[in-house]
Amino acid sequence: MIYLGSHVSMKAPDYMLGSIKEALSYGSNACMIYTGAPQNSKRVPIEKFKLLQAKELMKANGFSMDRVIVHAPYIINLANSVKPETAQFGIEFLTEELKRVAQIGAKMLVLHPGAHMKAGIDIGSQWIINGLNAVLDQDESDIVIALETMAGKGSEVGSQFEELAYIKEHVHKSDRIKICLDTCHVHDAGYNIQDFDQLLETFDQVLGLQNLAVVHVNDSKNVKGAHKDRHENIGKGHIGFETLARIVHHPKLDDITKILETPYIENKPPYKEEIERLLAWSE
Which of 62, 100, 101, 166 has the fewest CB neighbours in a 10 Å radius? Predict the structure, then answer.
């Protein structure tokens, strides 16, 4: 079965109930949310989320909580050794975010690994490991943190599979570290996503296909290896519709949740049309 959805809003007055209504309006059976604005730490109490009504609506539509992906805010940077207070803030905020994910009932939190701020990949990676250990060693839940593959913009850690494998290997609770593969990011990082079978084989060799937890399905505004990270609408970028459709329908990814993060078109979400087109594709 294909589990396909998109990023959806989380806003007053309906919060989670509104998120599920929005996802269903796109013909989705999955979605991704932020528990608050991704650019800041302001959060409203989960009690305002209308969780009970949201879960009733989900049950009525066969929408599993396992298919609700939470994305951590962008302000978390565990890799920042240049400003240790920033990394410490990230530890504290990520700890609280895991509690919020548990309250919602979701099972997965996607996290950008972080940026080393010119201190170097090795130092940045070690700070990420230390930060994740500090968070997970005190967290008793079974929530998975899915480290996202990055485009390699600036000093981002995680544009190469080996970097993510190193982090996972050295986290104490490594079973709680999985991977979110972003199609735009791996393309911009220099991987040949057009040969997706080979890319999956490489992923399997380095990280293990069993550790792939979620796929972000995005086209890219840039050529392969540009290290830019600019998402494009499905079929309008350098990856192309056929490649992305094959990824969505790939038999090895049947049970993997797939999420669109493509740009709005004329201030309107394109997700209903993009999801319909992707689901209707046949080789």
Answer: 62
